[in-house]
Amino acid sequence: MKTAENEAVQQYLTAVERETSGLPADRRQELLADLAEHIEVTLAERQEQDADAVRSVLRELGDPRTIAATALGETGVGRPGPAGPTGPTAPRQPSARTRIPAWITVVLLAIATPVGLLAADFGGGVIASLLRIAGVVMLWVTLRWTTAQKTWGTVLSFACILIPNLAVLGADPVGDGALAAVHTVQVVFPLAISVWLWMTHRRD
Amino acid sequence: MEPAEASNPATQAGKAASQLRKGVLEYCVLALLRDGPRYAVELLRGLEAVELMATSQGTVYPLLSRLRRDELVATNWQESTSGPPRRYYELTPTGRAALDAFAAIWPDFRDAVDLFLGTPRSDPSHPPMKHLKEQREDR
């Protein structure tokens, strides 16, 4: 596809994006990805891929405003009043999970290392790991974060524990200073992740 | 001239068709998947083959998104010999159950509407076309 045609597609997608500002971010991205895929597939299945072909593909796809209105109707966002989110088209299945509060995840991830350190004489490492795994499970079970946020939260939660541990793996015995540094990182970073998750979680 | 436009039979027919389509479109999509997985552009072609179900293509994607979310369909990407990979849709057991439930009540529903309209299909003394014609002549 030439640049001019590419630009027409971009303009179309930008128009859809502009008209769907009322959609939740993930729904909006999903719709844009679906439409982009449609354009790509339809064009690939045509004989010509010139400006005329692009124009007709976009015309058949329809007015961005109509698509936006349908999308808003599907999510219930467009409907005013209490009927909106509980309307017949509201997603049925996740209702129980949406009620799980965000603070459970945030607190579990924040306290894992401190509790582990306090209980160092009673298998603290195991306790910390269990709390952290519980936190990550809750992060994925609750519907308060996007998949991208959940992925980052999970990766960073484990990375900020593992990386300091690996850094001092060779040293035996580990110096007091190094150990303090490792523990500081393992307390402060999860705390920072918890703060970030708390700031970004989806509110009702 | 708005009142004239509102009573225009073509406009009214379009409105009625659009309302009805809204209600049944998702079941038509599920029905198109009954015999196996299809990708979105194929589904659209299937709908467009029947004029009454033809709709602005883009409006089907929010519907597909909801079917995915409600787990009535599952999707997976497959490479294609021509062009980009396609996302194939397939019925989940829940989706098949929803389709079967719809198929079970649809005949009763259709008969009920016919009953109210007074156009029983099995009654030759009252052919639907004649009925409509009489009404038009009354005006």
From TrEMBL, chain A:
UniProt-annotated stretches for the region Disordered: 71-95
UniProt superkingdom: Bacteria
Pfam families: HAAS
TM spans (from-to): 100-120, 126-145, 152-171, 177-199
Keywords: Membrane, Transmembrane, Transmembrane helix
Keyword Transmembrane part of the UniProt annotation: yes
Protein name (Swiss-Prot/TrEMBL): Integral membrane protein
Organism lineage: Bacteria, Bacillati, Actinomycetota, Actinomycetes, Kitasatosporales
TrEMBL record, chain B:
UniProt-listed InterPro entries: ArsR-like_HTH, Metal_resp_DNA-bind_regulator, Tscrpt_reg_PadR_N, WH-like_DNA-bd_sf, WH_DNA-bd_sf
Any single Pfam family the record assigns to this protein: PadR
Family matches, as Gene3D superfamilies: Winged helix-like DNA-binding domain superfamily/Winged helix DNA-binding domain
Chain residue ranges for the region called Disordered: 119-139
Ranges of residues in domain Transcription regulator PadR N-terminal: 29-100
Protein name per UniProt: PadR family transcriptional regulator
